[in-house]
């Protein structure tokens, strides 16, 4: 028995199943996912190259299929993204310019759904639009929870550092008193 490569239909169905695991696409119908995949164009990005940079106009919604990218926020915070994941969904929905940068950590393959096509698909089906908006709100909510946890952690770290500085200042002052005697 020989191993055959999966047919185009089987590959598309497998990709649809993977897309349903992405929070933005959760609970979408197979028909809509099929339309999304037909509208998407593959985009290869070399390691070190940017998918987008801050200030650029939104090009569309991206789906990371292979490789790894990182989201660099304000030039400081790196957030790694592994397949299969969506990128740029908020910008695709709002049509606002990108505020962060996405850089390929390794050679990567993404699907790009152009902004205009994405908008047409949303306008064509209000149920899908509502579901996607709810899913995106859930994604934003999860991101805010993670950010709040990082802030809480940073505040705890800051309090610990303030206490260490206070203790060190007290020790230095005690040494100065001993030295003056």
List the helices and strands and how they pair.
Elements: H1 8-19, H2 30-39, E1 41-45, E2 50-52, E3 60-66, E4 69-73, E5 77-81, E6 85-87, H3 89-94, E7 101-104, E8 108-114, H4 115-124, H5 126-180
Antiparallel strand pairs: 1-8, 2-7, 3-6, 3-8, 4-5, 4-7
Which tags fit this structure?
22% strand; 8 strands; single chain; Jelly Rolls; alpha+beta; 181 residues; 4-stranded antiparallel beta sheet
CATH architectural type: Sandwich
Largest sheet: 4 strands, antiparallel
The CATH superfamily label reads: Jelly Rolls
Number-wise, the strands total: 8
CATH class: Mainly Beta
Order of helices and strands: HHEEEEEEHEEHH
Helix content: 40-55%
Strand order of the largest sheet: 1-8-3-6
Instruction: Give the DSSP E fraction (strand runs of 2 or more residues).
Output: 15-25%
Mean pLDDT figure: 87
Q: How large, in whole angstroms, is the Cα Rg?
A: 23 Å
The CATH topology: Jelly Rolls
How many domains, as an integer?
Answer: 1
Low-confidence stretches: none
Short description:
It is built from 5 helices and 8 strands; from the N terminus they run ααββββββαββαα.
Describe this structure as you would to a colleague.
A hairpin with a 3-residue loop joins strand 4 and strand 5. The strands form 2 sheets. A 4-stranded antiparallel β-sheet has the order 1-8-3-6. Strands 2-7-4-5 form a 4-stranded antiparallel β-sheet, with no helix packed on it. The chain is elongated, with a radius of gyration of 23 Å. The model has no long low-confidence stretch (mean pLDDT 87). The longest helix has 55 residues. Helix content is 51%, strand content 22%. The chain has one domain: Jelly Rolls (Sandwich), CATH 2.60.120. It is built from 5 helices and 8 strands. It is of the alpha+beta class and 181 residues long. It starts with 7 loop residues before the first helix and ends with a helix.
């Amino acid at each position: 028995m020989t191993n055959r490569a999966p047919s185009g239909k089987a590959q598309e169905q497998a990709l649809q199943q993977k897309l349903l695991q992405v929070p933005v696409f959760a609970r979408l119908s197979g028909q809509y996912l099929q339309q999304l995949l037909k509208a998407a164009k593959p985009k290869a990005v070399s390691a070190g190259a940017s998918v987008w940079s801050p200030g650029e106009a939104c090009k569309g919604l991206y789906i990371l299929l292979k490789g790894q990218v990182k989201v660099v926020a304000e030039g400081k915070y790196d957030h790694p993204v592994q397949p299969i994941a969506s990128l740029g969904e908020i910008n695709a929905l709002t049509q606002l310019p990108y505020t962060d940068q996405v850089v390929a950590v390794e050679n990567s393959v993404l699907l790009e759904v152009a902004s205009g096509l994405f908008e047409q698909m949303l306008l064509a089906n209000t149920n899908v639009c509502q579901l996607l908006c709810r899913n995106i709100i859930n994604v934003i909510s999860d991101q805010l929870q993670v950010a709040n946890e990082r802030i809480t952690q940073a505040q705890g770290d800051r309090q610990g550092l303030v206490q260490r500085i206070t203790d060190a200042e007290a020790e230095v002052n005690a040494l100065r008193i001993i030295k003056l005697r």
